[in-house]
Each structure stands twice: as C-alpha cells, then as structure tokens.
Amino acid sequence: MNNDKMVVSAITRLVGNFNRRRQVERQMNEEMRTVKALDRLSDLSGKEEITITEVCRVAVKSLRTSFQYPEFSCARMVIGNREFRTANYIETPWRNEAPVIVNDTVIGNIETGYIKERPGGETVESIAGELSFLKEISEHLAGILRNALAEKEVSEQLEEYR
User: Fold this and answer.
1) Left if phi > 0, otherwise alpha if psi is -120 to 50, otherwise beta: which for 83?
2) I need a labelling partner for 35 at 20 to 30 A (CA). Which of 10, 45, 105, 161 fits?
3) Rounded to whole angstroms, how far apart are CA atoms 62 and 41?
4) Is a pLDDT exceeding 80 seen at residue 104?
5) CB-based contacts of 112: which residues, under 8 Å, 6+ apart?
6) Prediction pTM value
C-alpha cells in the first residue's frame, strides 16, 4: 500500500514537471517568434530610403509568419488611407488589434487573426500573449514609420529649398 502511494506521488510529480516544461517551451517559442518579427522589422529600419509601403508590406507578412499557427493566421494593416493585407485576410471573430501611434497621433492600426479556430482553442494566456506581441510590434513599427516619415519630410523640404 505504501509503495502504491509512492508510485502515485512519483507519477503526479512527473506529470506536473511535464506540464511545466510544455508551458515553458510554449512561452519560449512565443518569445522567439516575437524576436524574429522584431528582427525583420529592425532590418528595415537600417535601410536607407525605405518607403512606408515597403515597411508595411514586410510588417504584414512578418505578422502572419510570427504566429503559433501561421497557416491559419491572417493580418491587415491600415496606415492613413492605405491598406496592406495578407492574401488570405478575412474578417474573423478570432482577432486582435493594436493602434499605430506616431508622435501622439493614431495613424492607423494593425489587425491579426485566425481564419479558423486554432487547434488548441483560445485561452486567456494565448490571447494575452498575442495581444502583447501585437502591441510590441505596433510600437516598433511606429518607430520605424516615425523615422521614415521624418526622412520623407526632410527630403521634401530639401527639394523645395532647391
């Protein structure tokens, strides 16, 4: 009888350790996807004379490929009166949005979603994680757009001066 309790206790600890490991692995994967997306956007910010259109196209593509299930994800970005979207974009109930704010002004928004319910379903943690990711991307993108807009303004002023 005492052996049975020890076996059950050992199995319980193993299952708990396994579940904690899966949770840590999932969190690490999410962080890696975020880092990769931010890295792709950072590569853009180093380019000279990058257009806002190029930035937005790469950002939308990066968003889609950065999600846990990229084959089920879609993305759309509206900056001013221009819209950029993935080829598979549809309005979906499984989505998140974040504003793009430059110089204290909302200049657009980013929207990501899943075109069908995810295999694991929606959990509070997964929704919060993806919303946090989206806000991080939005802030980083706003910085890149701020610089691109400033460069454009300087170029226009130089052209006008000439």
Assistant:
1) beta
2) 105
3) 8
4) yes
5) 63, 64, 67, 73, 74, 75, 76, 95, 96, 130, 134
6) 0.66
